[in-house]
Specification:
Structural class: alpha+beta
Largest sheet: 10 strands, mixed
Strand content: 15-25%
Distance between the termini: 29 Å
Number of domains: 4
Shape: globular
Radius of gyration: 34 Å
Number of helices: 27
Length: 860
Amino acid sequence: MTVLKTSMRNFFSHKGRMALSAVAVLLSVAFVCGTLVFTDTMTTTFDKLFAATSSDVTVSSKDSSDTGETTADNGKPPVMPASVLERVGEVDGVKSAEGAVFSTSVTVIDADKDSLSPTSGAPTIVGNWNRNEARTMTVTDGAAPRGPDQVMVDADTADKHDLKLGDEIGIITVVGTHKAKVSGFAAFEVTNPGAAIFYLDTKTAQQTLVGEPDVYTNINVTAASGVSDAQLKKDVSAALDGAYKVQTAQEVADANAEDVQEFMGVIKYAMLGFAGIAFLVGVFLIINTFSMLVAQRTREIGLMRAIGSSRRQVNRSVLVEALLLGLFGSVLGVGAGVGLAIGLMKLMGAAGMNLSTDDLTVAWTTPVVGLVLGVVVTVLAAYLPARRAGKVSPMAALRDAGSPADARAGVVRAVLGLLLTGGGGAALFLAADASKAGEGALWLGAGVVLSLIGFVVIGPLLAGGVVRVLSAVLLRIFGPVGRMAERNALRNPRRTGATGAALMIGLALVACLSVVGSSMVASATEELDKSVGTDFIVQSDSGQLITPQAVEAAKAADGVEHVTRYKMLDAEYRTADGKVIKDTDITAADPTYAQDLRVETVEGNLADAYRPDSMSVHEDFAEEHGITLGSKIAVTFEGASAPAELTVRAITSSDAVIDAGSKYTAIDTLAKYVPADKLPLDALVFVMAKEGQQEAAYASLKTALDDYPQYTVRDQTDYKEALKDQIGQLLNMIYGLLALAIIVAVLGVVNTLALSVVERTREIGLMRAIGLSRRQLRRMIRLESVVIALFGALLGLGLGMGWGATAQQLLALEGLNVLDIPWPTIIGVFIGSAFVGLFAALVPAFRAGRMNVLNAIATE
């Protein structure tokens, strides 16, 4: 009880000094709990949607997915004849059966040819209005579609795009473009996470989406009273002789939920990873806080030991303070986490994904995880300062002497730090020297972990040399004030090292990712210049395949020399040695593709691979299966009823970056074996302009594809910029998540300076008494903060560039051979770190400047 009272008294007497550590715990716990609440809420939202929209039993084609997705490679959804609906309706136990037809392989545009598809990545769905849809949708304005010239739109999409009744929209499918006017709006009775949904009448939907009458993608079956879904499924399956896929409502919901959980799992664990980095940075802040508080209470600890307190009791007193800090920060963090989750939901709403706070889900495990994590991390971080406090002898503490174990601990730290850093460097060298990417990735991971821990351990030893160098360059120009700031930073290397290490972690990751991202862009740019001979590339940024109508429009553009179609599909290979290779693909293109992409061949000529019944393979595939020029391979294309016997006419290099590992054949060869209705659409289209007409062809091509806004026309410069933007957006998102760790690190600098000012109160008073002005005092503290921040930045950026360079060597095994150091980014981050130091010193410097000189001198 005495230990608890002492701890409570110390905690509340130093509550101001504990505040920033509590904020660090709060932020880290909030990020964890916010991530859990946000992902749980998204899961709840989708679960409700799937449960509400599933009929008792759903019948679909064997070719359809379990989730009902209809993005078939030929652009049409897999369908069933209307006779299946009649057969299902006659099954005992069926109350009603209704046909549905819908597709997600669509683009919808308004009268200005602007896309109405969601920007959040959610699907665009066009289907027929039916009773199953009416269960979950309410017509809020106008009426449901009653003819080919009418379409009903979900209310959310209408609001986003300011659609009005009577507005004309166009629905672009593989069949063609269907135009209709808005007849009504329908609102979801459950939350719509962001899909754009458009309803046609049944006949129009069949003709628009499939190009055939009397076909359905799904049959929604309602069970009669007293008939279970499982029994109904069994009876329907028996009536259809197993020729179609039959699923209960629960099975459909589970399949959809599984897809969502996979996607949410990636988001969840990525965000928790960044929360873990923030926790790691917070550990340094907490260690520094308790180390300085223990140092400031050395005499008090000596008195406690002198009157009978044991080492264990002193140790326990500090740990109880840490427990109180962890509990306080974690409780606030849990509440802040819920607020953060709501903020993320609002942010997703602005991006087009609607999430209602009515579905806010706070599982009982979320606050438990937050509390346990926050408390455990805080107590563990305080363990070393607590142990150090317990080891101080009473007499040494009473005369303010240091611990006799300090020197020995410094030697141990030096040896351990050198061993870890050396081990990390060796692992990074082995990673860079690896011959296989998988093996190198393991060494890279080990090198990153060991070198990071090594730099943290050896940081106090590096502080002396690095701070002196930085001071010589930056602080000496400020005269005596600069020298005093240097000495203050060097006074306690352990504290400076720990404070700098907190900033080092976040900046090391920033530098590493910057080097990797910049190298990827530079490598891809070099490869494009070397390999791509075509003038223009037409593709969909959302991954949609290219319709035949768009291909014909491209061919009709002025100034076009040729258009190359490019298709990809799965195939099964049987080689001459009898081996069967499954789950691989083949690329089918027009013969002009040999001009559009300069692929290096090790044997033969790639143009010959586009001769009838011919193909190419890449070098590794050929070596693995004993294939040479002239070898015969039996290839069974997806959708083909019989295999094709193709002759290998070329063997390409396996070191290519673009189309790495591809096997090529001609589209005419593919069409010989795959029925026309099962041929996949083009994934890309390459366009070559006539000599000297590139600019005119570029403008004409864009005009020709104006009716197809889902596709983008790019020349090589555009393509490089798009690649750079994509990687840049990914890096910016990662930097945004790393910002939490950097914020916590800044709090660490603020806390270190604030506690350092308290520790040096008497010294500051004496300096003021002998003539140091308030301005000079504030400048001294600011300069001390700047040099500590730059110390952490220098270590972090150097370490991160080493990691990034090693990672690039692994990427070189995949053909990305250019190492590019983004010096503007590195220099910008380094300079930014100086401003971080200035910002962190604002409050401590202000408080120091306001000290009363006499009171400060009288402080013990």
